[in-house]
Specification:
The chain is mainly α. It has one domain (2-250). It is 80% helix and 0% strand. It contains twelve helices and no strands. It has helices at 2-14, 17-47, 58-82, 87-92, 95-99, 105-125, 129-136, 142-168, 173-196, 200-209, 212-219, 225-246. Helix 2 crosses helix 6 (105-125) and helix 3 runs parallel beside helix 8. The radius of gyration is 20 Å and the shape is globular.
């Protein structure tokens, strides 16, 4: 059943110009960012004395910055993808078709989440030219690229679960999208609040609850069990909230 729903949701994305506009826009912006990072790195290397060029890391200055910027792009792109998933169906009153069928709430949630993730993966596939260029400049450590892609995929998964919840509580797409953006920004600010707090315990709690610290660790290849548990818990928690939100029809 999930497979059937996933195909339906995925086809609805690619049957409209929205998916192609988002993929094209994402590719254009990420390509410009990558080009600017390369130019900045090259200019910086040329401005340094010969004996200091080894102190500037290509991975730090280009690869990690690129994927940090891609994560920033998700602040806008993922809410645009998820804001219609339940809001539009609420507005058109088509959700009732699901409830009159043997489909369970969690199956609908998983299928819509997987469809959104499919579109995100299509967008990331367009960036595969970047590893080819990175390989050409002598960075042959595939673990760096694996960790970089894993970090943005895990963050995308978390953002999608948050976006699904926001879409389930509002019948207005714009409001759902704005709530998603604010929710993602709040997750970032929690980590910043932890860095500014002088109380060690509170700082540790804020740092763990915020998503930025986990993203940065995975991005740098320091993939710990606590990070995987965080992302899984985050996704299931907002999936649970989405199911509870949809269950309000029975109240």
């Amino acid at each position: 059943m999930i497979w059937t729903l996933w195909k339906k949701e995925s086809q609805s994305y690619f049957a409209s110009p929205l998916a192609y506009v988002l993929i094209g826009l994402f590719s254009l912006i990420s390509g410009i960012m990558f080009f600017n990072l390369l130019v900045t790195y090259s200019d910086g290397i040329q401005a340094l004395p010969q004996n200091m060029t080894q102190t500037v890391s290509f991975v730090e200055e280009v690869v990690l910055r690129l994927f940090a910027n891609i994560n920033f792009l998700f602040l806008v792109f993922i809410p645009l993808i998820t804001m219609r998933l339940f809001s539009e169906e609420k507005r058109q009153e088509t959700l009732e078709l699901y409830w009159m069928s043997p489909v369970r709430d969690w199956q609908v949630i998983v299928a819509k989440g997987l469809a959104a993730m499919t579109l995100i993966l299509c967008m990331l596939t367009m960036t595969m030219i970047f590893p080819m260029i990175i390989w050409g400049v002598g960075i042959h450590d595939t673990s760096v690229l694996f960790a970089a892609y894993l970090s943005v995929i895990l963050n995308a998964m978390a953002y999608i679960s948050l976006g699904l919840f926001c879409s389930s509580i509002s019948g207005n797409q714009i409001i759902a999208g704005l709530l998603s953006i604010l929710g993602i920004m709040f997750l970032w600010m929690i980590t910043w609040g932890g860095n500014l707090n002088s109380n060690f315990l509170i700082a540790e709690i804020f740092t763990y609850v915020g998503i930025t610290s986990h993203f940065e660790r995975v991005l740098r290849g320091v993939i710990g069990t606590q990070d995987i548990i965080y992302y899984m818990t985050f996704t299931f928690f907002f999936g649970f909230l989405t199911a509870k939100s949809l269950d309000r029809r029975n109240w």
